[in-house]
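Action item from last week, closing it out:
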Amino acid sequence: MSVTKSSLLFSSGTFLSRIAGLVRDRVVLATFGASDSMAAFVIAFRIPNLLREMLAEGALGNSFTKVYSSVFSTDQARARRLLFDTVLFMTMLSVLVCVIGILVAPWVVDLMTSDGNGKSATLVKSATGLTRLLFPFLGFMTIGAIFMGALHQRGRFFITAVSPLLFNIFNIIGALWFSGLFVAYGPNWIKEVFADKAITGFTVGVLLGGFAQMMVQFFALAKELLHELKDWKFRLPWSDDVSRVLVLMTPMVLAASSGQVNVVVNTIFATSVSEAAVVWLYSSFRLLHFPIGLFGVAIGVAVLPALTRSMTAAGGKVNPKSSAEIQNAVELVLWMMSPCFIFFCLNSLPIVQCLYQSGKFTSTDSVQTANALLAYSFALFSYGLSKVVVSFYFALDRTKFAFKVSLVTVVVNFVVNYFMVNRYGHVGLALGYSVTQGISVALLLFGLRRDGIAWNFPKLFRSLSVMIVCLIASGALMWSVNTFAAPHLEAMHWPINFEALIKITVNGIICGLFFIAAGLVYLRITPKEALKALKARRRG
């Protein structure tokens, strides 16, 4: 399957999951707002979620995909054994990590919170209890990452992308039902051992959602896993292939997920501002992840198997086919992120008001979250590109350079945030994250110069030229419409959510039409020819 088609399959599944994610965020924020209990949950969720990002979208997922793809192309029985052994080994390791995580939770929470304004004893206690409750989530996501790699090799991108839908559904159930159930019928020791009964009920929903997400992917591979289990005799789940996965994975734990490490650093700084700032940054980052997950991660996930196959066929070297794959992926990310960037820049407040402002999430929370989203939006290009470039380093086994870059950017992020947080508060943290991501992807792209990639610079220059013109033109029109329409909409006295919905709908149409037209100009085809090509690709 081509990278474009694979990306579309992954994106279509991700789209359903991300829509459910937006509904989830709205329900959760309306239920808990920017409260201390919600801040405790965000802090508690950071550690397993950080490791999930590293494994599910980073080191383990990419490492397993690379090794499994190369083995599967020559020996399917051996690939089946690799899948079974890796699942068994990572299950054993996950149990050990979860036990350790539960034991060291108080020290983890202490590390994740700042002494800047004095730590709230209730916040620390609640975050510690919820961290212990959430650690098994890491195990579910670790096993799910292996299932994801095997399914991607088979071209089954849709099921891995849509599986988070169940996670989001259980989150919603947790906020709407489990939280009330725990308040009404939960024993009093819940508050002593974990946290406030309502937020504990929601956290149980999160944990069940992680389990359900893993099981959907398991059922897609159940036949071959059960086939291996039937013939399995007790032995250590270790082989040369499992060793290859772990060797490839180790230096990339930070390399593939330095952005998530930086998010944790931001959380530490955010607690020095206020508990509410933790929720504002979390909420805005969730919105940022909508286009990143929909396009950037999708393209990065799809390009790794394609690059691995082309480089394996060329003896592990860069050839014209792999050069074309990497350039097409880079251009695709830029084209997908451009409309998202300009749309977020000009509509950050209406987006937050439409999606989040209700219940306990107030207008003040909307303004503060929108300011952070505006600052975060500058990371769209770099975050999306990093997913593609890191996939290239995986395919070429150049993990050490990417590891060094990740270490540099973690240090840079700390230094930038140290100076930004005192001047600009939580917005400075979001802006610092964008700066750091830009430096990271610049270093990664600079490192490609030694690999002999045959860049088609005239094609790339033409693509960027059309894109920049479209950015300026669509941005100018959206700004003009917003300026003209604002007083008229205010005079209508409509609910703020409905007014915001009108703004983002109109601007979304403007932005979408501009970039569709620009894409047709760049490809030099008519709309009729584009529809014909899409139908042909769908049949293929």
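Closing note: Residues 1-9+251-469 form one domain.
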